[in-house]
Amino acid sequence: SAAHPGAMALKIFELDPTLGGVQGQIWDRVNGYKWWKGELEKNEGGLEKFAEGYKIFGWQREKRGYTYREWLPNAKQAFLIGEFNSWQNTTPLTGEGFGRWSVHLPDQADGSPALPHPCQIKVRIETNDGQWIERVPAWTKLAWQDHTTNLFNGVFWEPPEAERHVFRHPRPHKPTDLKIYEAHVGMGSMDPKVATYVDFANDVLPRIKRMGYNCVQLMAVAEHAHYGCFGYHVTSFFAPASRQGTPEELKYLVDTAHGLGIIVLMDLVHAHASSNTMDGIAQMDGTDHCYTHGGLKGHHSEWDSKIFHYTKYEVLRFLLSNVKWWIEEYKFDGFRFDGITSMLYHSHGIGKGYTGGYHEYFGPDADIESHIYLMLSNDLIHSILPSAITVGEDVSGMPTLCRPVEEGGFGFDYR
Fold first, then answer.
1. Which end is more exposed in the chain, N or C (fewer Cβ atoms within 10 Å of the end residue's Cβ)?
2. Contact yes or no for 238/325 (Cβ under 8 A)
3. Is 52 among the catalytic positions?
């Protein structure tokens, strides 16, 4: 094929001239990435600022009160319900346009919040077609299981200053020779119980250190209603798994690891979302195309889960903000992106064998929107934390996965 006029401007074409034969799709993803960077610079103050959606949505501390905000494009009306108002429709949200709904709750006379900490909550929505549904807030910082219904509720988690974890240890230097110990906190006990973040910090981390590892990779960090899914069907993306403890206790675990000179990677599940509607973000506003694609395109047939619409504006904000949240709030040192073979291809790799022929990686099966998301995500992570490590779990062998974004690659450090 004829050479693209700027082909040699990308280093990946120098490193592997064979890529010249598929350069059209590589340029599609590179130009798409550049377009988004430009749009976000123009409209949002840049990629890093755009990835601070947690300063807009969910609970925001403002002068003399808290504001709660949710993105619900299909809502006709919405109410904040919870223990604080006996789950009644007495606290309506106001539409702000562009699918945003919010309510401001002024502090009480003594200066304490209108909602006690911790308080269980949900958002009740009347959709445009007249359905009434209840949802866990998409940006909730914590979710608790109600053992009378087995469903999860969001939690207003705003501990007083004295109860918040203060990080004591700096991040360790990026190791030149990674030795990764993969672990599941809940399974980290000799006893027949779900172990806690504190158990793991006090009992397991010292052993990991003693065995010579310099990195721990944690599975099942984000909340997942079904414990047996090992954390791979996420229901609340900003909430640490509550069976293992509180947000402050997870921070204690990460801080303890840093004190031992161990970096901490999080198993990040952005390849799909749980199909649960009652306690997840699937059909958040009553449609099948809120955070995910609608119809068959939005359904993973082998995992029975939902597929994100990666280049939809508010979905992109949600996912990129999620990445920044775990780095900033919990001090994770990087991520292992789970199941990205499913993201790279429209077929999700189902029924395909990969032998190394470039026709298997490019062509009509390549999901360019997902490629753009992975480039933006890696760019964001390495910009806000240059020492960060990203690992892409790909079984297909996609070329350029571990080349830097500026070379035309996806930006992962390891496969």
1. N
2. yes
3. no
